[in-house]
Write a structure and sequence with these properties.
With 355 residues, the protein is an alpha/beta fold. The chain is 50% helix and 12% strand. The structure holds coproporphyrinogen III (CP3).
Length: 355
């Protein structure tokens, strides 16, 4: 007999959707939902010494995690931290410069790899795990019983991108060059990051994260063979290892700009959900990805920032493509800082009114 997946009982809509239920209206949350577009975030940020201090102050980071839930009642809260806190915890230098983004010492040789120290990880992530505990307790204390807490990490490839380049880049040419020129060194870095990511995410789940997401923001710069080796294989290892310890905790992959490789990610990694970026046609993604994998996405963050008819049309298009399968409404990338918070409220209203 055919099982009706829409009646799976689960009181948190996000977890139900990631468990395979075609919930309608779909659960909704937004990447970078806590951040500079919120005046209450800017107020807390102004009081912290710098961005790293904010990420390592559990009371402030937990407060920031909850801010967008209070305003918009999202179906998920996401731990407030950053993907670059993992290299930071491994002893790699990290600074966030105002208006410039992250700056790291470029890792290009064996000596750079040897300087990473996995024995620092457990101690260094202690404040981040405390943020997870406080955010989870805060959700319960404030009555957000249907909001799930998502933990996250950068996927090994994207974290390696920032470590190798020493910051952001248009095309991550130094990273791709190293992958071809010194595959042993590149592979060893990916392996080290994969193991550290497993330990980091397992610790977040043990502290109270109810789902985890892996941000692979730059996966799309890789040629297919490198994509299989450094995006698909590490993700498969992370999912498989987490599932042995926490079989019921869903894992969302976000191989941004994966294009035609999205189907491979759905088939070969074991993820429960896949984030779809702004450039992908969600209806085409839905055809590539089997219905046992939930899709999450993919409204253009700039349509949200502009609002009005662009927002209304964008929400409609995404809802039409996500309907009838396990689906989580989100953006195709993070909220941009100039987004008016009222547009976010309107987005949530429109999604929740979906017929
Ligand atoms: O609300 C959330 O989504 C949770 C917190 C979160 C942040 N960064 C906070 C942040 C998450 C999940 C991230 C992920 C992240 N960080 C990614 C993957 C997603 C993506 O955007 O592609 C990447 C590539 C980073 C690295 C990073 N962090 C960059 C390039 C920058 C500088 C650019 C910028 O937006 O300032 C950051 C800083 C950062 N991370 C901020 C926030 C709120 C802004 C810092 C500030 O307040 O000054």
């Amino acid at each position: 007999m055919e099982i009706d997946r829409t009646v799976v009982r689960q009181d948190k809509p996000l977890l139900a959707a990631l468990g395979g239920a075609a919930i309608w209206p779909p659960p909704v949350w937004l990447m970078r939902q806590a951040g500079r577009y919120l005046p209450e975030y800017r107020a807390i940020r102004a009081g912290a010494a710098d961005f790293i201090a904010l990420c390592t102050s559990p009371d402030l980071a937990a407060e920031v995690t909850l801010q967008p839930i209070r305003r918009f009642g999202f179906d998920a809260a996401i731990l407030f931290s950053d993907i670059l806190m993992l290299p930071w915890a491994l002893g790699h230098g990290l600074a966030f410069r105002e208006g410039e983004g992250p700056v790291l010492p470029p890792l290009r040789d064996a000596a750079g790899l040897a300087r990473l120290d996995p024995s620092r990880l457990t101690g260094a992530i202690t404040p981040i795990l405390e943020t997870v505990r406080r955010a989870r307790a805060g959700l319960a204390a404030e009555g957000f019983d249907r909001t799930a807490l998502i933990g996250f990490a950068g996927a090994p490839f994207t974290v390696a991108c920032y470590m190798i380049e020493g910051g952001g880049s248009k095309d991550f040419a130094a990273t791709r060059t190293l992958a071809y020129a010194d595959p042993a060194l590149f592979g060893a870095l990916i392996d080290l990051l994969t193991e550290a990511t497993i330990a980091y995410l397992a610790a977040q789940v043990a502290a109270g994260a109810e789902a985890v997401m892996l941000f692979d923001s730059w996966a799309g710069v890789l040629a297919p063979d490198l994509f299989r080796a450094h995006v698909v294989a590490p993700l498969r290892r992370i999912v498989a290892t987490l599932k042995t310890r926490f079989p019921a905790v869903p894992v969302i992959g976000f191989p941004r700009m994966a294009g035609m490789m999205l189907g491979v990610c759905a088939r070969d990694t074991g993820v429960d959900g896949l984030g779809v970026d702004t450039a992908a046609d969600l209806a085409v993604a839905a055809a590539l990805v089997p219905a046992r994998v939930a899709l999450q996405g993919n409204l253009d963050p700039l349509a949200l920032a502009v609002g009005g008819p662009a927002l209304a049309r964008g929400v409609e298009t995404v809802l039409r493509a996500g309907r009838g399968r396990p689906f989580v409404f989100n953006l195709g990338h993070g909220v941009v800082p100039h987004t008016p918070p009222e547009h976010v409220a309107e987005l949530v209203r429109r999604v929740r009114a979906a017929g």
